[in-house]
Sequence to fold (163 residues):
Amino acid sequence: MRQPLLRRAAVTTAALGLALSATPAVAQDQHASSYTNLPVRVTVTVQGPDGLLFQGKVFTWGHDVTTATGGTHKCDGTNGGAHASKVPTPTAALDHAAKWNGFSWDGTWYPSFDDFTVDTVKAVSGGGSAYWNIAVNGTPTPVGGCQFEIGNGDQVSFVWTSF
Fold:
């Protein structure tokens, strides 16, 4: 009678051990995508048609952004249902960089995208033949600048791009 109980306990312990050994990988994946709006330090680079307009490190987090053209709207990663919780975003980083370094930027708000487009930075406009491309760590963002999550150490760039 005692031996089956010990065997059952050993099987249960082994099963629990296997389940727990798989949990860290799942927990790590969930942690990586658990989304936090804690401030992150990123490098923001703004490259215009005639050269570098700004480059510097900024602390940023997702927040409400106000532009002259677009008004005030959230820019915290929850835009368009991209994330369940607030996160730091590229456009929020540009907004903080501008506020803390004395330059301006403007953007149009598009309700259908629940996001801003960046129209001008330091009075340099994309205009009808160019736009401000947003990239993180050298890769263009697949979603808007208020929807993409950035993290500590990321390289966030806004590059004037003609088409």
Q: What stands out?
A: The longest helix spans residues 2-32.
